[in-house]
Amino acid sequence: MPSLLNYAILTDPTSLQASQPGAPSTGTVYVIVSNTHQSEVRWDFIDVEIPVGSGPDDLTGNPTAISATIEKDYTVNREPEPTFDWDSVLGRFRAHDPSGGRLTLPPEESLVLSLENIPVSDLAGLVRVKIYERSGGGDSNLPVRRANSLTTLGLVKQTPKIPRNFRPETNSLVDVDAGQNLVLAWEGPDNLDYWIRDPQGNEVLVHSAVQGPRVTQQPYSWSPPSAPRRGTTYTLIAGTTTATQQYQGYFLTTTVHALVPEFDSGTRTPWVEQAPGKTRATFSAAGLEVHNGAGALGTVTADRVDVDRVDTRAVHGRTAGDGWIDFPQSGLNVHQGGSTQLGTLSADRAEVDRVNTKSVHGRNSTDGWIDFPQSGVDVHKDGQPGRGTIWADRADVNGVKTAWVQGPSDSDGWIEFPPSGLNVFHGQGKAWGTVWADRADLNSVTTHWAEGPDGKKSRIAFTETGVKITDPEKKRGTVVAGETNVRSVVTPWVSGPQEGAGWISFPNEGVDVHRDGEVSFGRIRYASYKESQTVNERPVHRRLPPYEWPPRSGN
To answer: How far apart are CA 543 and CA 113, in angstroms?
Structure first.
């Protein structure tokens, strides 16, 4: 007996794809049940039987994985909602009244029985779906028969006729630096030729079609000669090739990227960012700007920077406690300890036009140092305020104020400057030293004696009674002068300056006048001579006190 109800079958996808190794396929089957009569049809159940197994005629090997639902767009008073689920005893999906009653399908109404998430078996073929029905009524108002009515519908399982799932075998991010290679994989029928096209348009035939009527699905893979070093798109081309022509019918693309990309010709971009809210490098019209996550200027860290010019407000050491340099309009300031306190500049050599500083100190705390008061320069020693020593090859100054001056060694002579003038000493004590000069222009000289420069000349000694002149043999010497103005002369004889001149001797008896350099008596010429005091009619000879001139009468 024919069924009272009308049945139609639809699938999603339109043609169910048979499962493939590594690529399971699922689908949905819709059974549309409709009442084409002008009268209602009463039914006890509707069973949908699908073939279970792994053959080409079987729809699935696991019916329990299928989700069964029923959907209707009409209502019948005081009838419960029907259910549609798997009956493991019957091996069918049954729609029925859960309480066991009879249900009504009004005229010109329909309901849909859905079988979703069907694991499609892996062999292509035609699948017959049987529908069992127990019903009555309709236009002929037939009684409900105890025998079931059967309707058979068909659907098709297909294997893919085109390639699919073109992809990197592992992931699309290749770590070239770690030596990772790229493997491209896909599945497709073996009756097609497959080419891979690289970004430069080069095509490589990687698989040729298998000849014969039977077509099977196969997994394929291919690796480029070298892994890509930047984002690269590969194109899979599938088609057939004849002796004279190549037919390309299918194209699939996939893109892979390098973990650290390299670009041969350069990269154009307004900015580069580590991550949202992280460091960003912006390429402005003036150059490159580095910003931190907050948008403020960030930090550039490098082992070495080779630039023509650096414009910056400050340069700081790596840690917060390091020294730093700022650049005011007046020049450059060096600070210490991350504070504004002036710090220390260390250099092998500094060449500057001018140095303004309060003091200059040696490297160690006990070294000498120089400060600069308003009066000039003070040199100190041992890191203390005590006066220090200046060492120099030559000093050109307008004036020197010092307590004493000494030669470079401790045994050298030295000069001190008492209030009365200048003292010259030799050695480390205060023994009088020697002044050597080409010429001395003095108002007065006070000395014990004066001698020629080489120690072999005559000497003049200044005794309490006057001046004593001796020759180098310590005998009495000779005074040579153009004119002598003295108040008294004590001498054994007096001679004229020329050879053979007359001379005068002074024996105890008086005065003898001689001539021609002989002992013979000579001649005396005189105008007058008078002495106020005489003894035995002879003039009295007497010595006057020193420095008394002219002599006073009556003494």
So the answer is: 172
19 is a domain residue: yes
In a domain, 16, yes or no: yes
Confidence of residue 517 (pLDDT cuts 50, 70, 90): low
Tell me phi and psi for residue 177, to 5 degrees: -65, -25
Query: 469 has which bridge partners?
Result: 460
| Structural domains of the chain, count | 2
Statement to judge: residues 68 and 113 lie in one domain: yes
Q: What is the CATH number of the domain that holds 142?
A: 2.60.40.10
**Which residues are paired to 28 by β-bridges?**
12
pLDDT-wise least confident of 3-7, 280-284, 486-490, 544-548? 544-548
| Planar angle of CA 83, 88, 93, nearest 5 degrees | 40
Question: How is the chain split among helix, strand and coil, in percent rounded to 5?
Answer: 0, 35, 60
Q: Are 33 and 113 in contact (CB under 8 A)?
A: yes
What integer pLDDT is reported at residue 549 of this predicted model? 47
The proportion of the chain whose per-residue pLDDT surpasses 70, expressed as a percent, equals: 93
Query: What is the pLDDT at residue 513?
Result: 86
Instruction: Please give the average per-residue pLDDT across 94-115, as a whole number.
Output: 96
Per-residue pLDDT reduced to its tens digit, 273-299: 888 888 999 988 888 889 998 889 888
- H or E segment at 261? none
Q: Any idea what the CATH number is for the domain that residue 231 is in?
A: 2.60.40
d(CA 256, CA 223): 12
Do residues 129 and 248 share a domain?
no
- Both 147 and 18 in one domain: the answer is yes
Same domain, 143 and 59: yes
Contact 88, 171 (CB under 8 A): no
Is residue 117 domain-shared with residue 87, that is, in the same domain?
Answer: yes
β-strands 41-49, 103-105: how paired? antiparallel
Whether residue 193 is found in the same domain as residue 231? yes
Does any domain span residue 28? yes
My answer on whether 146 and 227 are in the same domain is no
Mean pLDDT of all residues in 428-457: 81
Weakest mean pLDDT among 51-65, 88-102, 185-199, 214-228: 214-228
Distance CA 83, CA 96 (A): 6
Q: List all residues 6 or more positions away from 64 whose beta carbon is below 8 Å from its beta carbon.
A: 86, 88
Enclosing H/E stretch for 447:
none
DSSP 214-281: ---EEEEEE--SS--SS-EEEEEEEEEE-SS-EEEEEEEEEEEEESS---SS----SEEESSTTS-EE
Cα 351 to chain centroid, rounded: 28
**Tokens, residue 114:** 């859905």
Domain that holds residue 39: 6-158
Domain boundary among 158, 185, 204: 158
On average, the pLDDT of the chain sits at 86
pLDDT of residue 198: 92
- The last residue of one of the domains, among 158, 175, 198, is 158
Residue 529 has pLDDT above 50, yes or no: no
Q: What is the pLDDT of residues 145-201, one digit of tens each?
A: 888 999 999 999 998 888 988 999 888 888 888 878 899 999 888 999 999 999 999
Which residues have a Cβ under 8 Å from the Cβ of 327 and sit 6 or more positions away?
312, 313, 314, 333
Do 87 and 216 fall into the same domain?
no
